[in-house]
Amino acid sequence: MPSQSPRQDPLDEQAWLDAYDPHAFAPVAVTVDIVALTLRQQQLHVLLVQRAAPPFQGSWALPGGFVRAGQEDLDQAAARELAEETAVDTAALRRVHLEQLGSFGAPARDPRMHVVSVAYLAFAPDLPTPRAGTDAAAAAWIPVSSLEPVAGPHRGGPGDPSTTRTRVDLAFDHGALLTAALDRARSKLEYTPLATAFLDREFTISDLRAVYEEIWGEKLHPGNFHRKVLSVPGFVEGTGRTTAHGGSRGGPRPRLYRRGDARLLHPALLRPDREEAIR
Amino acid sequence: MPSQSPRQDPLDEQAWLDAYDPHAFAPVAVTVDIVALTLRQQQLHVLLVQRAAPPFQGSWALPGGFVRAGQEDLDQAAARELAEETAVDTAALRRVHLEQLGSFGAPARDPRMHVVSVAYLAFAPDLPTPRAGTDAAAAAWIPVSSLEPVAGPHRGGPGDPSTTRTRVDLAFDHGALLTAALDRARSKLEYTPLATAFLDREFTISDLRAVYEEIWGEKLHPGNFHRKVLSVPGFVEGTGRTTAHGGSRGGPRPRLYRRGDARLLHPALLRPDREEAIR
DNA sequence: TGAATAGTGTCTTTAAGACAGTATGAG
DNA sequence: CTCATACTGTCTTAAAGACACTATTCA
């Protein structure tokens, strides 16, 4: 990377560092924004905040905020912002899967200045209703179905224009971030056991199947899914117990499972259809 | 994201924006750094520059530089930096695959100030030897084998400590960026046709196999690989022609292929072994 | 001619999917 | 009792891998 003023005296690096002025560059701000997904009543929801201040005052936006310079790395900033804008305490946060999604840095994506946003993706079990943070008029879990284009989840990859706009427009380019997050989430379910991150510590195979069905947006074959999940080493491990009662519409009491120790699924649980390669 | 001073007059957004001072925040700088990979004489090489100025003066580092505030998005910045630090003209750049890898933002990764680096991954066909850019004493394609830990490519994922350090230490945290890039490259070969990005426009199946073997670090079965590549729809398309001569050690003249129009491989070309799930 | 390579055929094993069948428990 | 559900069994098909074989070209 270029230095502020190249070709300094090579022996006097410390003096050079002392004289370095961090304000000399045209500033680019760095934020983290979090796409936190959860399932409530079998429906996929995303955590949104209503902006209390300009720009986009009153609009819904992803929770996030500026990285504290010199104080935290990006993962820490994302965890901090997620905790600040939700009623999530540190204990509950440990149950949340948080991973970096990608960075977005179009010069005009924020009208104030050039802001690079490092987007994070979070998978959470059903969490309490959030309270509004310091800069939000409100914070809520919003059904993704009220934001996604009618096209539905199968159609189109990241480049498909039909999936790049949301129905209820979010602030900034947060609609694009959400689209990217959903794409990533759908494909993460294929080759990782992260579907379990949406569930309580103990769950049934049907619970797990419901996660896949909701996020992929299609029904799966119960019998084949059941066998497949149990055949992948390390995906789930049995507890030896069952639920106290059968389902609301009858049936035997399903067995309870915990997440196994696999971090990747082998073989993967590939999505059906996808009519051959997406070109 | 939080605003500079929340709870402004909601009706006067434009005035608020005019009064906005981009220098008010503790500054975080944003750079792009590029892990450009190519094959030279069947060996994987990475583009490195030797730093002409502090910090890390004299060390090898990934090419990169500061994002020009307000002037370019991240992809453009990466393409610009790659072009600046190589002898690559715009025409050749179109043959290079460039994708975002991820962002790195530990507060102390740069001694000057808090710098968030957006890392990019580039796959290039054999390009000319680069010239040194403005801030580099030298620029060169360096064999990845001289930087990677002895462990070899199979062992360990991103979290394995044996792969997180490089033998020849790079400046900043660029060793970690390289490790992440190699992981990404290895897995991208599985489910995308990007191996072709390392080859000329026309290539043989053996050329393609050599890409996989070098990047995955293991020999593949020639017959099965051949059939597999031809069976994946849209991976390659025949030209109807063959090379002018057979191999240096004999054999029939292999047929020539071009890249097909698939953007994902279905079914994927999974890496062998990987002894079940990586836990 | 000998050796290495391109390309194809075939067999085995594994996995995915379609479908059927049995047992369980709620209403 | 009825019906949805939890699971299991079985068959078909697709794909991966092991292996063998032929044809072609360079040395």
Textual characterization of the structure:
Chain A has two domains: 161 residues, Alpha-Beta Complex (Nucleoside Triphosphate Pyrophosphohydrolase); 68 residues, Winged helix-like DNA-binding domain superfamily/Winged helix DNA-binding domain (Arc Repressor Mutant, subunit A). Helices cover 22% and strands 23% of the residues of chain A. Chain A has six helices and nine strands. The two termini of chain A are 36 Å apart. The N terminus of chain A is likely disordered. At the A-B interface, helix 1, strand 1, strand 4, strand 5 and strand 6 of A face helix 1, strand 1, strand 4, strand 5 and strand 6 of B. The structure holds a DNA duplex (27 and 27 nucleotides).
Keywords for this structure?
7-stranded mixed sheet, 23% strand, DNA-binding, 6 helices, Nucleoside Triphosphate Pyrophosphohydrolase, WH-like_DNA-bd_sf (chains A, B), homodimer, alpha+beta, elongated, Arc Repressor Mutant, subunit A
How is this fold's topology laid out?
The structure is a homodimer of 279-residue chains.
Chain A: H1 13-18, E1 29-40, E2 43-51, E3 60-61, E4 64-66, H2 74-84, H3 90-93, E5 97-104, E6 115-124, E7 136-143, H4 174-191, H5 205-216, H6 222-231, E8 236-242, E9 255-259
Chain B binds a DNA duplex (27 and 27 nucleotides) through helix 6.
C-alpha geometry of chain A: elongated
Characterize the largest beta sheet of chain A: strand count, sense, and whether it forms a barrel: 7 strands, mixed
Total domain units of chain A: 2
Q: Report the mean per-residue pLDDT of chain A as an integer.
A: 85
Order of SSEs of chain A, N→C?
HEEEEHHEEEHHHEE
Percent of residues in helices of chain A: 10-25%
Domain Nudix hydrolase (chains A, B): 27-173
Organism (chains A, B): Streptacidiphilus alkalitolerans
Protein name (chains A, B): NUDIX domain-containing protein
Pfam family, one (chains A, B): WHD_NrtR
